[in-house]
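Box 4.2: Ligand-aware structure prediction
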Amino acid sequence: MSLPPGLPSESLHVRYAETSSGGDHDWLPVISTKLYTNAFIISPGPPQKILLGYKKRGFGAHFYNGFGGKVEAGESPAQAAARELKEECGVEASLDHCGTLLFVNKGGPEWAFQIEIYRADGYSGTLIETEEMRPEWFSAADTRFSETSLTPEVIPPPIPYNSMWPDDIYWIPLLLTKLPFVGRADFDTDTSGRYEMLRWWFGVPSTSL
Ligand SMILES: COc1nc(N)nc2c1ncn2[C@H]1C[C@H](O)[C@@H](COP(=O)(O)OP(=O)(O)OP(=O)(O)O)O1
């Protein structure tokens, strides 16, 4: 087991099942971290669905992601997650913490993103499109060909990993199966400005397997 540096110290006390790559790159230095949140609404189904938002502006614009942002002064991450969910898509939910991720970008910003990930199995209120996010449902599994009893109208498209941050494909499946996780990914930008992962590590406490 080789837990990457920079993750919160409580992560160090558990053993992990892990997936990783990019070991020929040194981990980038973590000068400072800023706390962020990201919240996902899951509809148990069948078919199981996940609510994502198409980000219309700012950091990560044109990617689909959960709903979230910076933890403001005086807020806990859980309070920030609830506030950002309401601000970005108009709903409230009983959110459970399910993961901690660290993202470091070679070309800046100079801080690393520590993102606390939350999920909920439902919501109250009415989903709305806001200036920042357009909410859309996606099938958590590509059930379009296996669930023949379901009509195309009730089965949304599969999770659009090609239009999401490249790390998401490693931990969204853990989120969907309610396995707690931690992870880190270091990024660089290629010549066309696209983010590519240099090195990453994602792990699940072995006690939850
Ligand atoms: C680099 O990899 C990332 N992957 C994923 N899945 N999500 C990421 C990554 N890097 C950042 N994020 C998330 C963290 C936050 O949820 C948002 C960014 O938040 P934003 O900059 O929009 O924060 P706000 O407080 O809403 O900012 P403004 O009020 O200034 O719009 O992306």
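In the box above, the bound molecule is LXYW25GO. The mean pLDDT is 89.
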